[in-house]
Amino acid sequence: MNDTLNTPSFTLTRGNRPLLVSLPHVGRQIPPNLQPLYTERALQVEDTDWHLDEVYAFARELGASLIVPVYSRFVIDLNRPPENTPMYAGANNTELCPTRFFTGEPLYREGCAPTPPQIDERRATYWQPYHDALRAELARLKAEHGHAVLFDGHSIKSELPWLFEGKLPDLNLGTAEGKSCAPALRAALADVLEAQNAFTQVVDGRFKGGHITRHYGQPGQGVHAVQLEMCWSTYMPETPPYRVDAARTARLQPVLRALLQTTLEWTPKV
Q1: 236-269 pLDDT per residue, tens
Q2: What whole-number distance in Å separates Cα of residue 134 and Cα of residue 59?
Q3: Are strands 148-156 and 10-14 parallel, antiparallel or unpaired?
Q4: What CA dihedral angle connects 151, 81, 87 and 173, to 10 degrees?
Q5: Of 93, 76, 64, 220, which Cα lies nearest the Cα of 152?
Q6: Cβ partners under 8 Å of residue 164, min gap 6
């Protein structure tokens, strides 16, 4: 039986299987007191991982836990390290409190970008509670099942020249080059992607996993983490108003279900 924890900044549905699905960029809200700082365009939160809470809703049926934030990544990026070190050296990156769109233009009105004390406040208010919940839920799952798997779900526009060259593969599995999970789990998930022919795919390509995958993935301690970054086009048009396309989603969800089911069927070697 699932039970749900609702907080001001996230909702956590606790499952009974050793899998936690995290969707850190699904939130769309910007607190009213912060809204005047942003450009009109920024208030439309275009760089959201749109509708992934709907796309991954079936995870609850599998018995997985699911954590979904309320606030937009434009307030603070839950998938960035608290000290704000770049995730991808030598490439354009967005910060812990992003100041630019994925297209490179500024998010804030002139002179309104957050100061270090304001970033500290946002970290304490929005970032820390989410990560406290991640840590506690993974510890609970590991205690109950002997191991835990964290599946970090993301989506993005397929072409963003400011961030990467060309067009992304449809499905991008990241395991921090194999460091965030057991080799057997990485191989099993790669097999799922290779077995389907509906979508292009890559393992540890441009997106190898952000802070959540890299930080919590500690296979030697019984916690395994993977990230799936997928193109918006796999489940919706990549232009506003960013509405889910039922036919595309029906084509995608069997692959996602197979990935999650594989993590549930997999058990680490003792």
Answers
A1: 999 999 999 999 999 999 999 999 999 999 999 8
A2: 16
A3: unpaired
A4: 0
A5: 64
A6: 91, 206
With the C-alpha atoms ordered 22, 24, 27, 30, is the resulting torsion angle positive or negative? positive
Residue 13 identity:
T
What type of residue is 221? Q
Phi (first) and psi of residue 247, to 5 degrees? -70, -45
The pTM score is 0.96
Q: In the chain, what are the domain boundaries?
A: 3-265
Q: At 153, which helix (H) or strand (E)?
A: strand 148-156
What's the Cα-to-Cα distance from 166 to each of 129, 173, 237, rounded to whole Å? Answer: 36, 18, 18
Q: Which of 147, 151, 177, 142 is nearest to 259 (CA)?
A: 151
Q: What is the DSSP letter of 42?
A: G
Query: Would you call 147 helix, strand, or coil by DSSP?
Result: coil
d(CA 217, CA 184): 14
Pick the CATH number of 3-265 from 3.20.70.20, 3.40.50.2000, 3.10.620.30, 3.40.630.40: 3.40.630.40
Residue keyed to tokens 């942003």: 38
Using the structure block, give the residue that is written with the tokens 């900044």.
Answer: 9
The 65-69 sheet, strands edge to edge: 3-6, 10-14, 65-69, 19-22, 148-156, 223-231, 171-174, 201-203
- Quick: pLDDT tens for 46-93: 999 999 999 999 999 999 999 999 999 999 999 999 986 665 555 556
Please provide the distance, in angstroms rounded to a whole number, between the alpha carbons at the two ends of the chain: 28
b/e map 78-91, b = 16+ CB within 10 Å: bbbbeeeeebeeee
Q: Are 228 and 199 in contact (CB under 8 A)?
A: no
Is the dihedral angle over the CA atoms 70, 19, 79, 253 positive or is it negative?
negative
